[in-house]
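Page 37, top half.
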Amino acid sequence: MFVAAGRTGGLAAIDFYKVLIGHLTITGSTLRSRSIVEKGRICAELEKTVWPLFGSEGLSAMVQRTFPLEAAADAHRLMESSQHIGKIVLMP
């Protein structure tokens, strides 16, 4: 068990065994220490270079498999198996 500082100074317990067996990644970041001007520059660059990629062929999610909603239990089993690489999608 590992204890990490939370965003408001609180504590969180993390079971790293689950992180390891699930091949998970933990990432943290904050813009709190950046100036308003720097935050504005970051937002402008994001709007210019990243947002246009959404909805185009430039940025898309990797989908491993889709399931009909009625097969949600099967989708959940696949997720729990950690045998997928992309997203698991439930369709109506």
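Page 37, bottom half:
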Amino acid sequence: MPRATLVVFVCLVVLATLPMPASARADVLDASSGGFIVKVSVAVAAPAAEAYRALVERIGSWWSPDHTFSGSAANLSIDPVPGGCWCEKLSNGGGVRHMTVVFSDPGKLLRLSGGLGPLQDMALVGAMTWTFREAAGTTTIDVTYKVGGYLPGGMESLAKVVDGVLSAQLQRLRSFIDTGKP
């Protein structure tokens, strides 16, 4: 495993062991040797359209730099159109395609395809769906990530790690939307 992938994987494991703030609801919905489904939900004090814009237009303002290859979340971008890229610029002129946009309904839904972070090198595939439901002045953001493929030893333990990382990122997004700071 390349050093950068190993470092990201170790960070994922460490984050998964941290306590999660009470304002997020996270679940490993299913896990088996061949795949898993995780779901994380947060409520934010903003309209759905504003929450969606924070995701796609301001990801560099709230995503943890610890979960980037470049060490800077400012290098992240999402082009929210079918075929669009959740990409990261690298300092040497290179880059990373984290995921590909396959469905975009602004203010309601964003679906991406691919293996996020070290899952990319593990030859796993995934579908990540962000939904935005507005009611009574708040928006609930649900992120469901379905991952499948082959991983020696199975994927059951990886599900909790991914769930922990996504939970931490959603908490940062919630904080950014509600306070302007991740």
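Margin note: The CA atoms of residues 54 and 177 lie 7 Å apart.
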